[in-house]
Amino acid sequence: MNKILMGTAVVAALTLSGLSHAGCMDPSNAGQPMGALSFNTGTVAAHGGHNAAENIVGTWHVIYTPEGATKESGEAFIQWHSDGTEWENINYPVLNGNICMGSWKADDEWHVSRSHVGWLYMGGTLAGWFHETETDVVARDGNSYTGTNETTLYFTGMAPSVLKGTAKATRIAP
User: Fold this and answer.
1) Cα dihedral sign for 79, 101, 97, 160?
2) Whole-prediction pTM
3) Domains and their CATH numbers in the chain
């Protein structure tokens, strides 16, 4: 009975929220944008010329938008590390999960891709996990990137569901 109630609550939350993207997913709330955040996003010298693998390293402010939506679903801070790992903190409630991590690799001179995982919680109770893949195009100057992502949600006792969306990022200067 408890699994049926949990499953029903998750389906209702996802359906009612209109959510089409997950990343450090909050299944009960798509996240409320904080408005215009202000960071030192001035031009930063590219990290090694025109090489996505070097230019992606650093701290970024990322806006996620669900496929087909006109409104963002979340904002995050992501750190891409030179060892091929990455870490993200998104503006979703802590009790529903807002920290995730993964690894990345350079696909070519302009593109990087990442494999990203995190736990799914509902009100502080573990409800499953997710796996996100994303491919990004890093700007020539190394100060922005855009990408597409696909996230598979694995809620306990339910069939997996897939969400798609985009990411748009601006480097936060040191």
Assistant:
1) positive
2) 0.75
3) 2-28+46-172 (2.40.128.30)
Q: Give SS3 for 152.
A: strand
In the numeric block, the tokens 């909050």 are attached to 26
- Mean pLDDT, consecutive 10-residue stretches, the chain (174 aa), reads 38 38 45 49 53 95 92 93 96 89 96 96 93 96 96 96 97 93
Nearest-angstrom CA–CA distance, 15 and 27: 10
- Cα gap 128→108, rounded to integer Å: 33
Contact of 151 with 66, CB cutoff 8 Å: no
**Residue closest to 149 by CA, chosen among 100, 82, 92, 93:** 100
The neighbouring-strand residues paired with 147 are 136, 167
- For the chain, the 3-state helix, strand and coil shares in percent, each to the nearest 5, are 15, 45, 40
Q: d(Cα 15, Cα 68) in Å, to the nearest integer? A: 15
CA distance 110 to 95: 37
Phi, psi of 158 (to 5 degrees): -130, 160
What would the two tokens of residue 172 be?
């936060």
Torsion sign across C-alpha atoms 139, 143, 89, 68: negative
